[in-house]
Amino acid sequence: MTDPHPTSVQAATPVQAATPVQAVILAGGQGSRLRPYTDDRPKPMVEIPGTGVPIIGHQLSWLAAEGVTDAVISCGHLAGVLQEWLEKAELPLRVTTVVEDEPLGRGGGLKYAAAHLPHPDRGWYATNGDIWTRFPLREMAAFHTERDATATLALARPRLPWGAVETDAFGHITDFIESPRVSYEINAGVYVFSPGFAALLPDRGDHERTTFPRLARQRRLAGYPLPQGAYWRAIDTAKDLTEAAKELAAQSR
Known about the structure:
The protein is α/β, with parallel strands linked by helices.
């Protein structure tokens, strides 16, 4: 029987259809270089001074603002602390946590978490649990789609923690540069993956030594440079916490 009141539905464009609405956050690391902050909490639960928000809270808000509706968090070190915070927090999206029964390595852990995503036929984002950043994920997803990539890595140019010097051809020092940006782009720890990517991951081991190099040889791995002015920092040490607090305070002025 024909519906006398048909509903008009606008077809999604290819880019809209390919934009992920699900993500994996890898939050199982020991965070040994952040001690004593990580003595009683996992690294993603460490707060940037002055924000009152743990790293994981910032990430979930960012993902939700970029259209993500479901996130799977892969837990490990002190998983109960993170799970307890998630139960009490007002979350902007649906969150599932998974804990490995035994260490699977970064690639195996990513594959295990991806198996719990709600839409196995759709692409997905992933991020390391110690990344403090904001940039347009939808633009990265469009970049991924345009290049028909299987996986796309965000690329950053971090600053050196030391000062640098410039010299002339005769070895005279001509200038001092405080904390210059490195000349090479690095893996920023944020990804876009096509639906079939999880099947390419190892059950155990490191995908950056297996899956990524294989995709690169096949020209199926893309690199998305972070936009000019985008904020990015990996929180690895106590100094990173201090620097992040200074940078965020400067941005709010």
